[in-house]
Design brief:
This protein folds into four domains: 64 residues, no CATH class; 136 residues, Trna Endonuclease, Chain: A, domain 1; 79 residues, no CATH class; 149 residues, no CATH class. Helix content is 23%, strand content 30%. The strands form five sheets. A six-stranded mixed β-sheet has the order 6-7-8-9-10-11, sandwiched between helices. A six-stranded mixed β-sheet has the order 18-20-21-22-23-24.
């Protein structure tokens, strides 16, 4: 394995070691290429791995790594090889697109203390007293949309570390598949906090794009229909512990602490957890038994806390607590209606719970719920917020039947992020400070015993970005 190239398999018929005049030459080949390197010395050696200092053409030094893929310590070697390959492509991209800047640092090494991921190569560029942070995501990155979160963390880290350099902004290199999500997010970052350069890379070249050109969203706001009162939903809702959620499509979702076990649409009822089955009068006792079993196993004082029904969907459980105590989250919010996953994302599952409510002044409130630490929570919340604002600006909520009787204000929606107080990732506050100032973001931490009782432990409004250079 050598940085900048795909790994080569070592097999007897395509690998040789040659000793001549006191030097060793390694040669390895496949159908597409041939690698010949002179070995200067062994840099390091451990079980399953040997790093060699080699001499490339032009007497340039480099590192060649020999790996035994059967060794458990090398199970992620293919992923590391892909990162090293893209790191060298990223280096070439920086030189092509930013030729006036000197690459002072480039790395893919993890730094857990400062939350610097090995998944995205990062660079520090210098030009006299000015600096620039840069980060890239390859086409085969597991989550190329996550590059901006780590880019902002890298930018902020460099600004604190390089006290004698003015870090002007951030250059982001993304594959075409991530350009739309990245540009939408960049449009909603504070232009006074940093300047942002977005490059979309293709095979062998990159294009500088203007995030301002990306104004249309993949989003859908379906008409809101009221559920008819046909008796089925009311009968199941009367079972102890059952929560009712009226959905915009006219159906009724019935759940126990966030876990849906039945749904009613018109005269039909479906019930079950993983798979829904048609039900009727003869199944009512079975439906009641299912609800009672969930209520027994899915409660704060449950004896078996390793039971999958207890551990499953913690965000949905936290959502049910937030809905029940929504005026604790914000005393101005109407307790009903509160809509879930409205508007809908074209990309489908997001991993966090989106709620939409309105306050007594008619201002919309986007509520994002996460039960566990998530570095990407601020920008994922921004994804939902910007779509809500897009529909709001076009008057589509009132026109589609949402929030009947409420005169919606034409103000930017509130952004409320709700998570257990001990589950906030320390970088969330850093990322939030880079959002535009018209996005009123608030972090709300709930107590560790939220399954038993929803208690607000702290509130923290996102602070606008403050220049670290103003005190110099």
């Amino acid at each position: 394995m050598e940085a900048g190239d795909d790994p080569l398999p070592v097999v007897p018929e395509s690998f040789t070691l040659t000793a001549r005049s006191g030097a060793v030459t390694v040669e390895c080949w496949d159908r597409h290429r041939n690698l010949v390197r002179r070995v200067r010395r062994v840099q390091s050696e451990k079980r399953g791995r040997m790093d060699l200092e080699i001499e490339r053409y032009g007497a340039k030094s480099g590192t060649l790594t020999l790996l035994d893929l059967a060794d458990p310590s090398n199970r992620h070697a293919d992923r590391r090889g892909a990162r090293l390959k893209y790191r060298e492509q990223f280096r070439r991209s920086l030189r092509r697109q930013l030729p006036d800047w000197r690459i002072a640092e480039l790395s893919t090494e993890p730094d857990l203390h400062h939350t610097l991921s090995p998944s995205y190569p990062r660079a520090f560029l210098r030009r006299g007293p000015a600096g620039l942070a840069a980060i890239g995501a390859s086409e085969d990155a597991l989550s190329p949309e996550g590059v901006l979160s780590f880019g902002l963390i890298w930018l902020d880290y460099l600004r604190r570390r390089e006290s004698r350099v003015t870090i002007e902004g951030l250059a982001i290199f993304v594959p075409a598949a991530a350009r739309i999500a990245t540009c939408h997010r960049v449009r909603h970052l504070d232009p006074n906090a940093a300047r942002y350069l977005v490059y979309v890379h293709h095979a062998g070249h990159e294009d500088l794009v203007d995030p301002g050109d990306y104004t249309n969203f993949e989003t859908r706001l379906d008409p809101c229909h009221r559920a008819p009162g046909n008796g089925w939903a009311e009968r199941i809702e009367s079972i102890e512990g059952v929560e009712r959620r009226d959905r915009p499509d006219g159906s009724v979702s019935l759940a126990v602490r966030g876990m849906e076990f039945a749904r009613v649409l018109n005269d039909a009822v479906l019930f079950g957890i993983d798979h829904k089955h048609a039900g009727g009068e003869a199944q009512l006792s079975e439906i009641a038994g299912l609800a009672a079993g969930l209520a027994r196993m899915r409660r704060a004082g449950a004896e078996d806390r390793l039971n999958p029904l207890y551990t499953r969907d913690p965000e949905a459980w936290l959502e049910s607590q937030v809905r029940r105590g929504i005026e604790q989250i914000d005393a101005m919010l109407h307790p009903a209606p509160v809509y879930g996953q409205v508007p809908q994302f074209a990309s489908g599952e997001r991993g966090i719970i989106d709620l939409l409510a309105a306050d007594r002044d008619g201002r919309l409130a986007v509520i994002e719920i996460k039960a566990n630490q998530d570095i990407h929570l601020p920008l994922q919340a921004l994804d939902y917020w910007m779509r809500v604002k897009w529909h709001l600006d076009r008057g589509e909520f009132a026109g589609s039947g949402y929030f009947p009787g409420v005169a919606l204000a034409n103000q930017p929606p509130k952004l409320l992020l709700v998570a257990p107080a001990l589950e906030w990732h320390p970088t969330n506050e850093i990322v939030l400070q880079y959002l535009r100032r018209e996005i009123p973001a608030e972090r709300i931490g709930v107590g560790i015993e939220w399954k038993q009782e929803l208690r607000i432990m702290f509130r923290s409004f996102a602070k606008p970005w403050q220049s670290p250079y103003s005190a110099r």
